From TrEMBL:
Organism (species): Hordeum vulgare subsp. vulgare (Domesticated barley)
Stated name of the protein: F-box domain-containing protein
Domain F-box positions: 10-56
Superkingdom of this protein's organism: Eukaryota
């Protein structure tokens, strides 16, 4: 006699070719993939396979991250539907005094996103978490008030995630640079190997925090948007050699202080989005030939011509999606979604006061990491009790459900 499980498995999969089931499951959001494990043993085995989990991650959409208040929650925007969902929130156990949030470092901030992991800080405490698996860990070595995170990236070693940060030397008057491997008991200072004296001088002046100006990973190196402290050039950090160099932005861009620039990858090429605040226009440049530094210009004419405030510029994400905040004095702010062609896609379902767009995107992953701790079954985060993940226990995953990497 067939068991209930085999009957369920047979009725669920008999209508589909066997090789199609993993393809369909790989395209489910993490929450629904985890629920699908209850269908039958075959589906549970598929969802627990290491290679399948990596494939599932590759099929997940990139979702821009936005903040709605100084203390959260953090939300992800599904660009295809213009829907917004809560990823995590900080629990306000006691009323927060007004003076508490005068320092921007006290607010909930996103410093990086890589491989489904988020690097976040709140009240000067840093932590790494995976919202899909509800794992995380504090980074106590980043508690210093005066450091700035510059980049969060994955090294070539399997499963090794690193944080690049700078710290001022009060006596010398210049910045030193350090790398912390997530899960390591200590950080290490890196020697400033540079391509020129100008690059070294720029590094001594420091870089902008990755909250506002995160680097883009291109050709195994981190690239930062042009910054005044770097002489208006694009700073490049080779992850393997741990050396710094510079490349020049388009000479015709003629960037000034009020302009907002953002680097991203476009169809396998390094690209730069420029928002000229005074002229109220946007331009995309892409590097047609990286070795020869040949930049090509693409003009953009937006269907809606905003005048964004400097703290919250237009942000262009991969695939050419742009998010723009429409501030309203007597009503909730609105979040506009446009294409790089200028066509208005619509309003995001995220109307509230004080929307803050981040330049970071979340691409969810169910990969488990040994250097992260799991949330307890009662929903509490022992590693960061002020944090609460969205979606409830149905999104939880244990070490028996998947394999770490």
């Amino acid at each position: 006699m067939a068991t209930r499980e085999t009957e369920r498995g047979s009725s669920s999969s008999s209508q589909l070719p066997e090789d199609m089931i993993p393809e369909i499951l790989a395209r489910l959001p993490p929450k629904y993939l985890l629920r699908s494990r209850a269908v039958c043993k075959a589906w549970r085995d598929i969802a627990a396979d290491t290679e399948f989990i990596r494939k599932h991650h590759s099929h997940q959409p990139l979702q821009p991250l936005v903040l709605t208040r100084d203390v959260g929650p953090l939300k992800a925007v599904h660009l295809a539907s213009n829907k917004c969902r809560v990823v995590l929130r900080v629990i306000e156990r006691v009323p927060i005094p007004l003076f508490f949030l005068h320092d921007a470092r006290d607010a909930l901030m996103v410093h990086g996103s890589c491989g489904g992991l988020l690097l976040i800080s709140f009240n000067k405490s840093f932590f790494v978490c995976n919202p899909a698996t509800r794992q995380g860990a504090r980074l106590p070595l980043l508690l210093q008030n005066d450091l700035d995170v510059l980049g969060f990236y994955k090294h070539d070693d399997p499963g090794e995630y690193r944080v690049l940060y700078q710290q001022p030397d009060a006596l010398q008057g210049w910045y030193s640079y350090h790398i912390l491997t997530v899960g390591s008991p200590q950080a290490r200072s890196i020697q400033l190997r540079t391509s020129s004296a100008d690059v070294a001088a720029g590094l001594a002046r420091g870089l902008e925090s990755s909250c506002a100006s995160p680097p883009v990973l291109f050709r195994d190196s981190l690239h930062w948007s042009p910054q005044e402290s770097q002489g208006g050039d694009i700073l490049v950090f080779d992850r393997a050699a741990e050396s710094f160099s510079r490349i020049s932005p388009p000479a015709e861009a003629m960037l000034i202080e009020d302009d907002h620039t953002q680097l991203f990858e476009m169809e396998g090429k390094l690209a730069m989005f420029c928002w000229h605040q005074i002229e109220n226009k946007s331009v995309i440049w892409f590097m047609d030939n990286y070795e020869q530094m040949n930049w090509v210009k693409l003009s953009i004419k937006l269907a809606y011509q905003p005048i964004p405030l400097p703290p919250c510029p237009i942000v262009l994400y991969q695939e050419g999606h742009m998010l723009i905040v429409l501030y309203q004095e007597e009503a909730s702010d609105k979040l506009l979604h446009c294409y790089k062609t200028g066509k208005l896609h619509g309003f995001v379902d995220c109307s509230t006061r004080g929307i803050r767009i981040t330049p970071h995107m979340l691409k969810e992953s169910l990969v488990l990491h040994e250097f992260l701790q799991s949330q307890r079954n009662d929903g509490a985060c022992e590693w960061f009790p002020e944090l609460e993940f969205a979606d409830g226990s149905d999104t939880a995953i244990s070490g028996n459900d998947s394999q770490s990497t």
